[in-house]
Specification:
The chain has a seven-stranded antiparallel beta sheet. Strands 2-5-10-7-8 form a five-stranded antiparallel beta sheet. The chain is 43% helix and 24% strand. The protein has eleven helices and twelve strands. A hairpin with a 4-residue loop joins strand 3 and strand 4. By secondary structure, it is α+β, with helices and mostly antiparallel strands.
Length: 317
């Protein structure tokens, strides 16, 4: 959370027309990578309300294909309430709505192909019971956990929904809201600590771990000074698996096939470099393995709704 925030409520609109802008939209609360995983329109919009340096709430809606691997700031604890048409967290498709608990430093691993809606609250972890936070940190083991919305968690979601529907004016009691939200978060964490989480079966966990390792390898290679081989065979050789196993893992856990993920990562890097204006369109495309410029331009238009030359010219202005 932003150390410059005062004790008066402050409302910040949230908007990102490209998944790559989601990290900057998070304003330092989350860090990592988000990218478009398939062609199609994308829009993220919502609002965040700061009630001081210790607490903020948010509401948002995300439309379109996106893959996000985001790590929460070390000092924060985040409780999110999400539901979506085709939303996967850690490779698990959400069965309706669920609560996502992320303790500072943990990773949120999510993929979306349709429309997802969410409410959330972030709290400075030092404001919460230290033993409670430690228990959740041990349980989560560096990942976001999904849980059913029951008991105190349901009451917290209702509270966030009511707050989101109401106005935030100058006479709003930010100090009282901060204290009551911290208490509500503690109640939800304490009440949910012993509840069974929504987890993958053992086989699903193995396949998700394989897909996540392959995705990380793809990104390591596309980010290298000289981009490396991201073909299916090359990754299978490194990971010691078969083509079919890796293809099934990607389809099951990210909702798209292996070819789209590799293409999306390479296109994302091309777009970053075109925005930076470091080279021509053809040089950048060739460097990232797109050997047919006409086909590359078609992929780029499908993903971003504009020609690569337009991206480069926009940066040149």
């Amino acid at each position: 959370m932003d150390g410059s925030i005062t004790l008066s409520p402050r409302v910040h609109p949230l908007c990102a027309k490209d998944p790559g802008d989601l990290v900057s939209t998070a304003r330092g609360a989350w860090d990592g990578v988000a990218y478009r995983i398939a062609p199609g329109a994308f829009l993220f919009r919502g609002r965040r309300v700061y009630f001081g340096p210790r607490v903020c709430t948010e509401s948002w809606r995300c439309d379109g294909p996106v893959r996000a691997r985001l790590r929460l700031a070390p000092a924060a604890v985040h409780l999110g309430f999400m539901e979506g048409d085709d939303l996967r967290v850690r490779g698990r498709t959400l069965p309706g709505a669920a609560m996502a608990v992320t303790v500072g430093g943990a990773m949120l691993d999510a993929s979306n192909r349709g429309t997802t809606r969410g409410l959330g609250v972030s709290v400075d972890g030092s404001s919460l019971d230290a033993a409670l936070v430690a228990s959740w940190r041990a349980r989560a083991d560096g990942e976001t956990l999904l849980l059913p919305i029951e008991g105190a968690a349901s009451a917290l979601r209702d509270r966030l929904q009511s707050m989101d529907a109401g106005p935030v004016g100058q006479d709003f009691d930010a100090v009282g809201t901060t204290s009551s939200l911290i208490a509500a978060v503690e109640d939800a964490l304490r009440d949910s600590l012993g509840r069974a989480g929504l987890r993958l079966a053992t086989g699903g966990r193995r396949r998700h771990a394989l897909a996540a390792a392959a995705e990380q390898l793809i990104w390591d290679r596309v980010r290298a000074p000289e981009p490396g081989d991201t073909s299916l065979d090359a990754l299978c050789d490194v990971l010691g698996t078969t083509r079919r196993t890796l293809q099934l893992a990607f389809q099951e856990h990210f909702g798209v096939n292996f070819g789209l993920i590799t293409r999306a990562a390479r296109l994302h890097r091309v777009r970053d470099e075109l925005r930076a204006g470091v080279a021509s369109v053809s040089d950048t495309a060739f460097r990232h393995g797109f050997e047919h410029l006409g086909r590359f331009a078609g992929y780029y238009r499908d993903f971003y709704g504009e020609n690569p030359s337009t991206t480069l010219r926009t940066r040149a202005r």
